[in-house]
Fold this sequence. Notes:
The protein is mainly α. It has 14 helices and 3 strands. The model is unreliable at 140-151 and 368-376 (pLDDT under 50).
Amino acid sequence: xxxxxxxxxxxxxxxxxxxxxxxxxxxxxxxxxxxxxxxxxxxxxxxxxxxxxxxxxxxxxxxxxxxxxxxxxxxxxxxxxxxxxxxxxxxxxxxxxxxxxxxxxxxxxxxxxxxxxxxxxxxxxxxxxxxxxxxxxxxxxxxxxxxxxxxxxxxxxxxxxxxxxxxxxxxxxxxxxxxxxxxxxxxxxxxxxxxxxxxxxxxxxxxxxxxxxxxxxxxxxxxxxxxxxxxxxxxxxxxxxxxxxxxxxxxxxxxxxxxxxxxxxxxxxxxxxxxxxxxxxxxxxxxxxxxxxxxxxxxxxxxxxxxxxxxxxxxxxxxxxxxxxxxxxxxxxxxxxxxxxxxxxxxxxxxxxxxxxxxxxxxxxxxxxxxxxxxx
Length: 376
């Protein structure tokens, strides 16, 4: 059978060699042998399965491929992940959602050599992915399955309301309306979190904290990571930033994780909109500090929003709820320590534009989450 030897030869030439012309040599071998296509695809599914064993998830793979390669490679990766899913074991709902969100476009049709080159470039990246901390999804106890299903349905309705409010906040051109909508969304998040905590306290075997990864896209990744950390902390979660791979891992209970994803995304959209307007006003006044202005703007925005969220977090619960939430905070901290026994802190860099810092703080004030009545 000719396919396996051809693929092996191509891999030896392209994936495990360092010569500049190695990729061309491997692609030439594959392009000349159509019978190798099935084996090449099978090996790709094996590379994907190996990535799962090393702690990666579908969204992580798509993110790193988009970060390191081109859009054509992203489509190839999505096609490969979908193909491997048919051979995979059952996974949790977050994994399923990531599969559903895969890019749907088919890879562009090209000549065999160009296609083989792209496939080998993708495989070389997959082969070299480092191991990540596993993100096992928390499982509800069998005895509480029906109650969990009811809670999931209620949670889905609540999160749908939160998404709708944040979408309106992002779309409106009036800062006061955006602030009011964001405040209402955060109030619903807080109520949802408390409801989940009380339900877990009454359950015979509550879920354990879970974890998810949230991409931190360039540019100005550091300020965006700081913003995510502030949102996570305000919603009873903890975040750890992996700068080289472009994501933060957020640890917390499932309802809180969803709230963090929603609010962080919304605040980023609002920050970008406000930054674009402020930058235009700066240019109209004769100033041209595009990069430093934006860096300082987002850093200030993250700092100010963090302060506002921290102040608001202390008003969310009554004293009788503190033990319930404290026990969950301990569980989150324990999970974080087990996943990341060693972490380091970093300081914001490149913040030097006074106008950008001032405008960022003003934008954060408009997007602030106000103090709300205590929840009982």
